[in-house]
Prior knowledge:
By secondary structure, the chain is an alpha+beta fold. The chain folds into two domains: about 1-75 and about 325-360, 2-Layer Sandwich (Uridine Diphospho-n-acetylenolpyruvylglucosamine Reductase, domain 2); about 75-325 and about 360-450, CATH 1.10.630.10. Helices cover about 50% and strands about 10% of the residues. The strands form four sheets. It has a five-stranded mixed sheet, sandwiched between helices. A three-stranded antiparallel sheet has the order 4-12-9. Helix 9 runs antiparallel to helix 11.
Amino acid sequence: MTQSKGKLPDGPQAPQWLQKIQWITNPLGYMDAAEQRYGDIFNAPVIGNHPCLLFVSHPQALQQIFSNQTNQFTAPPNRLLQPIVGNNSVFVLEGDRHRRERKLLMPPFHGERMLSNGQLICELTDKVMQPLLPGQVFTARTLMQEISLEVILNVVFGLHEGERFYQLKESIVAMTNGFKSPLTSGALFFQAIQKDLGAWSPWGSFLRQQQQIHRLLVAEIQERRQHHDSSRSDILSLLLEARDEDGEPMADEQLRDELMTLLLAGHETTATAIAWALYWVHRSPHVRDRLLQELDSLGEAPSPMEMVRLPYLTAVCNESLRIYPIAFLTVPRAVKEPVELMGYQLQPGTTLYGCIYLTHHREDLYPEPKQFKPERFLQRQFSPYEFYPFGGGIRRCIGEALALFEMKLVLATLMSRYELALAQQEPERPQRRGVTLAPSTGVRMMMQGRR
């Protein structure tokens, strides 16, 4: 396809307000239709008030955008999520401050610290599943949210009981469930409806739940400052000890926003990913059989590390994240200096998003992209510009290693210890949940008994 050098990529021609409504109510339909007509790069003015906002799905272009070697692109703050996570979150910081904060937050999500959570994840999975009786129908996403919220509260706060732990759990679930409503999700894209019209209004309800979480977080921060315990290794303890170049600790507000980010980004997405994996495995008998065979090959009581290293289990998790990536776009990039991208001359100020969903559905990379085929990940290695469910470049998700670790362990524990079945005949449809894609019914399943 030849492109004219001076002109910007085309895109859907409907008025901006109408495109935004399509984007909020049917994001996959909007992207599929635009890609079919306009190809690997198109104008999609659906976030903020940019008349020109480019969606890019070609791996070569993504490599150019994500590369840190050039100064052609910058990673501006994520304004879309600012109302949820606050002004001090790693999502909205830029430049040196972003790099510093990211460096502080990384260690607990990697290496020894993360591996020490393996046994805990398996135990929490069992704890949540134990009360289910044979024949009982449950919503997978709700139970997975319970598991992942307990995991993140343990990892971030070292909390696993007590009144504040239960209040935090309750408030976070209430707030995130609010984003099932198109009105609350829509408010992220139409700032004009970010209005507090009282507790009954969608945005007013969200703000009150957010304030309640803020109060609980600040109370925990202040209590921990007063009763410092250097033996603790949870993320809050590490952040309380952190100092900037001038030797200053993080302020309560900074800490609060970072904790809010880790709590929301760290449990909501993982719960959805595991629910999707359960759906696909139980919808595809051959996948289920092969996965059980691999798990059974480990014998009695395998260690978390043995499970995490299983190739087919890894392929199943990757294919679940490919077919319906939880986040369907990367965080934005802005053009810093005039640059040529895929034959187009882009000027400073142009905003671009990597379109994860469209890249993951390219026929040239993933033949029959709508089919669930874990084998793809055993047959070839995909580059970080072909498969990138956690985003790319300097804004790649810091919780990626923990999310995958948890996803594999929860799925392995459920599959090897319980007989489960889908309790729905109709296919599960993806539905917007804030800025993520979740199963519309939450995946209804039935407990058939222990294995």
